[in-house]
Amino acid sequence: MIKTHDTISSSGEFELIRRLESIISTSISPEDLVVGLGDDTAVIRQAGTNQGLLITCDIQIEGEHFRLEKLTPYQTGRRAAAVNLSDIAAMGGKPTFALLSLGLDAEMPLQDFDHLVKGIHDQFSQFDTVIIGGNMSKHRSLLIDITLMGTADLNKLLLRKTAQPGDRLYVSGTPGASAAGRIMMQNQKYIDKRWKPLVQKHIQPLPRLKLARHLAAENLASAAIDISDGLVADLYHICEQSNVGARIDQSRLPAFECSREFESLFGQNALETVLYGGEDYELLFTVPSELPDQNLGDVARLTQTPIHEIGSITKTPQIMLYSPEKGNQILTNKGWDHFARRS
Predict the structure, then answer these.
(1) What angle do CA 142, 147, 152 make, to 5 degrees?
(2) pTM of the full structure
(3) 168-330 CATH fold
(4) pLDDT tens sequence for the chain (343 residues)
(5) Angle at CA 236, nearest 5°, toward 10 and 156?
(6) Domain extents for the chain?
(7) Burial of residue 164 (number of CB atoms within 10 Å: 0-12, 13-18, 19+)
(8) Domain 40-155 has what CATH class?
(9) SS3 annotation, the chain
(10) Bridge partners of residue 321, in order along the sequence
């Protein structure tokens, strides 16, 4: 029951998604809709084929997702494109075409506009993706809204809902690195060259398209998602969609660079940052327990991507963190929420 004083900020992003689903669930789904709400992209069957059209969109707003005093227009453009590409990666797809809509301050220098668009173009071009249209409008701050399309074999889609108890849990790269870089940027302490790799991971995330496509093509992964809201928050999406739980082994979590110095200088818990930091755009995926280690090792070498086994999928619908010192601890579902109140 809705109370008259309930607001979006008091409910949160995921409650909004649930409410959206309940409102539109009475709509008749098109016959060729393979994947609708609840995954990284929508998937539509291309008529008469076994190929799927992937469609996703993402909005980046100045002051909410980025600050131009911290990023150059070029960096901002590349980052906005990378975020969208990561959604296509999470499905094991190949990006193809993009629509670009921009909300622009009328006083924005033309040189900044050129650099922004070049950043978007360069990031998409790296993955053979073409901007084919869009829209522009006046806006009080910079707004970047991208709709991205891609393709995938419907028999080889990576989905959130297909994890099974006993599956092993893997993650690419170093979760927490982007959040650590963001905190360093906010505190103006990232000038030291030791911090530059972390700051770079926040400024320029690397969508794991090559890794995901190999996992999908060779049927190695049973489920996948990209890490945008945080490792635990996005693992919850897999568990909820698959009706399973997970157990993370703390000793197997990869530590980001200079994590001890990060804790002492910035007063942040490195483990919390790894679990809940968000904006990594790394690939979190599960594989069947019987899959030989060599198969994943071959893919890691071929794609030049570090991957780490960090736990397993369980029957009990909760996420646990195991360490020898504390045993099993239940992890709460917290991470980035666009509508949370912030000071």
Answers:
(1) 150
(2) 0.90
(3) Phosphoribosyl-aminoimidazole Synthetase; Chain A, domain 2 (3.90.650)
(4) 455 567 877 776 667 767 877 777 656 667 788 888 777 899 999 888 899 999 999 999 987 888 888 899 999 999 999 999 999 999 999 999 999 999 999 999 999 999 999 999 999 999 999 999 999 999 999 999 999 999 999 999 999 999 999 999 999 999 999 999 999 888 865 567 778 889 999 999 999 999 999 999 999 999 999 999 999 999 999 999 999 999 999 999 999 988 888 888 888 999 999 999 999 999 999 999 999 989 999 999 999 999 999 999 999 999 999 999 999 999 988 754 444 544 4
(5) 130
(6) 40-155, 168-330
(7) middle
(8) alpha beta
(9) CCCCCCCHHHHCHHHHHHHHHHHHCCCCCCCCEEECCCCCCEEEECCCCCEEEEEEEEEEEECCCECCCCCCHHHHHHHHHHHHHHHHHHCCCEEEEEEEEEEECCCCCHHHHHHHHHHHHHHHHCCCCEEEEEEEEECCCCEEEEEEEEEEEHHHCCCCCCCCCCCEEEEECCCCHHHHHHHHHHCCCCCCHHHHHHHHHHHCCCCCHHHHHHHHHCCCCCEEEECCCCHHHHHHHHHHHHCCEEEEEHHHCCCCCCHHHHHHHHCCCHHHHHHHCCCCCCEEEEECCCCCHHHHHHHHHHHCCCEEEEEEEECCCCEEEEECCCEEEECCCCCCCCCCCCC
(10) 248, 329
